[in-house]
């Protein structure tokens, strides 16, 4: 069973500003697909990474 009805999902997806979504996705991929950052994430404790994530997500 789906969490949301398809019609509800389509309604809200149509309301999204694609330019803003694309900009946010580029920012996400630039950070999280960076091999150096991926390695740092793997080697960090969760608490250490949470602080970094919060500061990086606002830049």
Helix percentage range: over 70%
End-to-end separation: 38 Å
Portion of residues in beta strands equals under 5%
Provide the residue-averaged pLDDT: 86
Which regions are unreliable across 5 or more consecutive residues at pLDDT < 50? none
SS-derived structural category: mainly alpha
Radius of gyration, rounded?
A: 16 Å
Structurally, the number of domains stands at 1
Counted beta strands = 0
Biggest sheet character: none
Cα shape: elongated
Task: Please report the number of helical segments.
Answer: 4
Secondary structure layout plus pairing:
Elements: H1 6-14, H2 18-32, H3 35-43, H4 46-57
Could you characterize the architecture of this molecule?
The protein has about 60 residues and is an all-alpha fold. The chain has one domain. Helix content is about 75%, strand content about 0%. The chain has helices at about 5-15, 20-30, 35-45, 45-55. The longest helix has 15 residues, at about 20-30. The chain is elongated and about 40 Å long.
Question: What are the defining features of this structure?
Answer:
0% strand; elongated; mainly alpha; 59 residues
In brief, what are we looking at here?
With 59 residues, the chain is mostly helical.
């Amino acid at each position: 069973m789906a969490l949301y009805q398809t019609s509800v999902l389509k309604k809200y997806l149509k309301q999204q500003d694609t330019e803003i979504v694309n900009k946010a996705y580029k920012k996400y991929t630039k950070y999280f697909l960076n091999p150096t950052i991926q390695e740092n994430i793997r080697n960090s404790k969760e608490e250490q990474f949470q602080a970094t994530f919060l500061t990086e997500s606002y830049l």
